[in-house]
Amino acid sequence: MSRGVRESISNHFSSSKMITIAMFLVLFSSHDLLSFSEAQLRFGFYSETCPSAESIVRDVVQQAVTKDPGNAAVLLRLQFHDCFVEGCDGSILIKHEGNNDERFAPGNAGVGGFDVIDNAKSELERLCRGVVSCADIVALAARDAVVAAKGPFYEVPTGRRDGQTSDKSNAANLPDVEDSISILKSKFREKGLSDKDLVLLSAGAHTIGTTACFFIMSRLDAQDSMINPEFFQVLRSKCPRGGDVNVRIPLDWESQFVFDDQIFRNIRDGKGVIKSDSVLYQDNDMKNIIESYLASNESSKANFAADFAEAMAKMGAIGVKTGVQGEIRRVCNATN
């Protein structure tokens, strides 16, 4: 995102068993807006056809994060950007000649982790040819990346199949760092996600990772009043006017490689790095959600780890292809 995870956060994480139960309720509750095909996802989908599928992905991800801790956030972000365009179908992985694919859309600038997914796919094809989809690898890799960053383990239902189209024009409506709170809410609701999911999957996911100066230059040049004055000087020193816009800075200045709730303190204290994080605290409903993760009384404090896992399960079911839909790609960057 390295620093040891705070003891209080570690104690606050739910057991994997309880999170598994929560995932089941999210996926199969009659109150969820899941289609029949989405409900066909299930835990242990590859238990008979490729029993080592999840362990293979986990090992590849662990190696990647050990080599570069920043890969944890990269893989988490990859699933978000995949699911928000054409559903969670691995379409963001496709790369044809001409740069007209989804991955080249402006809203996907800086998205990476493709090599990690390709490595996992190569190993899986060696052992279980034509069985494990690239879309499932993306979902599993995101979970394993969170765990590698000292975040919660949660069960991931699998059974997604891979999309067969990829067009950057389909990615024109991705959430953007310059979006207002009303636009952000609208974009998440269009995907069947709640305001709470917005806080968790947008700001919460920024507990790890970096951004480029390019994405904050406009708010620095405008001297955005949402930024703490002292923190403004820190950001300006890293991203000076007329400086290199490709310089990377942490999204969570306190613990960029550790999955914890520090990002919410940062937003509350005017230390949100990107505008789309800062605007959340300007909305009363969003502010209350953020404050729920910072309550001083442990008995009333919301469980960020469990709630994040639940939100990831909901996002991971957006527009999935199952059954005979789509295909199982032989390589992740090209359709069969």
From TrEMBL:
Class of the enzyme per the UniProt entry, highest EC level: oxidoreductase
Annotated site (Transition state stabilizer): R77
GO-annotated cellular components: extracellular region
Documented EC number(s): 1.11.1.7
Cofactor: heme b; Ca(2+)
Sequence positions that bind heme b: H206
Alphabetized GO MF terms: heme binding; lactoperoxidase activity; metal ion binding
Disulfide pairings: C50-C128, C83-C88, C134-C332, C213-C239
Principal location listed in the UniProt entry: secreted
Known catalytic reactions: 2 a phenolic donor + H2O2 = 2 a phenolic radical donor + 2 H2O
Keywords, in A-Z order: Calcium, Disulfide bond, Heme, Hydrogen peroxide, Iron, Metal-binding, Oxidoreductase, Peroxidase, Secreted, Signal
Cofactor: binding comment: Binds 1 heme b (iron(II)-protoporphyrin IX) group per subunit. Binds 2 calcium ions per subunit.
Subcellular location: Secreted
Listed InterPro entries: Haem_peroxidase, Haem_peroxidase_sf, Peroxidase_pln, Peroxidases_AS, Secretory_peroxidase
GO biological process: hydrogen peroxide catabolic process; response to oxidative stress
UniProt key word Signal: yes
Highest taxon in the source lineage: Eukaryota
Function (record text): Removal of H(2)O(2), oxidation of toxic reductants, biosynthesis and degradation of lignin, suberization, auxin catabolism, response to environmental stresses such as wounding, pathogen attack and oxidative stress. These functions might be dependent on each isozyme/isoform in each plant tissue.
Family (UniProt): Belongs to the peroxidase family. Classical plant (class III) peroxidase subfamily.
Protein name: Peroxidase
UniProt source species: Brassica carinata
